[in-house]
Amino acid sequence: MKKILGYAAIAGFIALGASCTQEKKLPIYGDREAKITKDANGNEKIDTVYKTIPNFKFLNQDSIEVTQDAFKNKVYVADFFFTSCSTICPIMHRNMKTIFDKYKDNRDVMFLSHTIDFKYDKPSVLKKYAQKLGADVPQWQFLYGSKEEVYKLAEKDYLVAVQEDSSATDGYIHQGWLVLIDKHKRIRGAYDGTKTEEVEKLKTDMDILLAEKD
Amino acid sequence: MRKIIVYSLFFGAIAIAINACQSASEIEMAKYMSNGKDIYQARCQNCHGENGEGLGELAPPLTDTIFLKSNKQKLACYIKNGVNEPMQIHGKTYQEKMPAFKDLHDIDIAQVTVYITNSFGNRHGMYTYEQVANDLKSCN
User: Fold this and answer.
1) Are A130 and A103 spatial neighbours (Cβ–Cβ below 8 Å)?
2) What is the pLDDT of residues A94-136, one digit of tens each?
3) Which one in A28, A113, B66, B125 has a CA-CA gap of 20 to 30 Å to A138?
4) What average pLDDT does the structure give for chain A?
5) Does the beta carbon of B56 lie under 8 angstroms from any beta carbon of chain A?
6) CB-based contact B46 A90, cutoff 8 Å
7) Distance between CA A114 and CA A11 in Å, rounded?
8) Strands A140-143 and A109-115
9) CATH homologous superfamily of domain B23-136?
10) pLDDT band at A3 (very low <50, low <70, confident <90, very high)
11) Confidence band for B117, pLDDT divided at 50, 70 and 90
């Protein structure tokens, strides 16, 4: 009996060890659909189709048109902000800058900040802001676009609430999420950019995502 | 002998009085520091940083003790009315808009000013709300 217990314990430890070496995976967020396809033999099979960030076309801090091609095969962190925001944006970007500093030399990683201030944050304003933040490099794109397009992208695709509101301190209200997007344009995480613990979690998750085999 | 007792009582009383005064102002200072820290964390830290280090060139650091000392009379105006003018801090020129904090009362401004001018390597002592009221009269 004792022997059996001993064996069971050993087997258990082995199983435990195996599960530890298994690849860690981040969840995939957003609506999904089941799509029925046929394989070569005509057998039907079901594929899950995940929500992806649709294509876009905006001007960046150098007034150059940028589309999703710039983020092709990149893992990236996206957020919504505006340059004259005096409340949560400075904290979000202080924190985002620490992520940027960590992955500065990693060519698989990019950063994307969409301004929601379509009235004032023209590319030249974004340029100055990026320079003063110390992040005016191609790896970090600051994008300007029309209210309609940017707000729709925020709410429908990145799932970040943004709104014009004349009663708010700086004229807009928005959520401070930093959204993690994978190489297939899927949402893999959203972290409160005003909280250092969550930003640290993003960094850990970024490493997991970068190690993921596609 | 009686004389000695009277004298020692007298000096003793003076010593206690001085001591009490000192600790009263120390207590007042500690109160300003702790309330000032709360205001700083809620309203200023997002831009100026946990350790007064600033944020790139978007917000200057609060560690240039000479700047803070020589502009002490203007700090209340900066906080109450906001400011947007070139400033030389640690030998570097900063210019960006700091928002106005209209809702802060003189006592809040005094407390947060005491906090920043006695933290981050600064040591400029007390600054009362009466001084704030006075300094606010000469804002431009």
Assistant:
1) no
2) 999 999 999 999 999 999 999 999 999 999 999 999 999 999 9
3) A28
4) 90
5) yes
6) yes
7) 52
8) parallel
9) Cytochrome c-like domain (1.10.760.10)
10) low
11) very high
Nearest by CB: A132 against B46, B49, B58: B58
Round to whole Å and give the CA distance between B7 and A175: 70
Q: CA-to-CA distance for A20 and A66, rounded, in angstroms? A: 41
Structure tokens at B112: 């947060």
Distance in Å, alpha carbon of B48 to nearest chain A alpha carbon: 9
pLDDT in tens, A56-85: 999 999 999 999 999 999 999 999 999 999
Kindly report the nearest CA distance between residue A157 and chain B, in angstroms: 28
| Contact call for B49 and A94, based on CB within 8 A | yes
A39: left (phi over 0), alpha (psi -120 to 50) or beta: beta
In chain B, residues with a C-beta closer than 8 Å to the C-beta of A100 are: none
| Interface contact A132, partner B, CB < 8 A | yes
- The ipTM value here is 0.84
What is the distance between the alpha carbons of residues B80 and B129, in angstroms, rounded to a whole number? 13
Rounded to 10 degrees, the C-alpha dihedral A103/A188/A96/B35 comes to -140
Domains of chain A, earliest start first: 55-211 (3.40.30.10)
How many C-beta atoms lie closer than 10 Å to residue A180's C-beta? 22
Q: A140: which chain B residues are within 8 Å (Cβ-Cβ)?
A: none
Does the pLDDT value for residue A20 go beyond 90? no
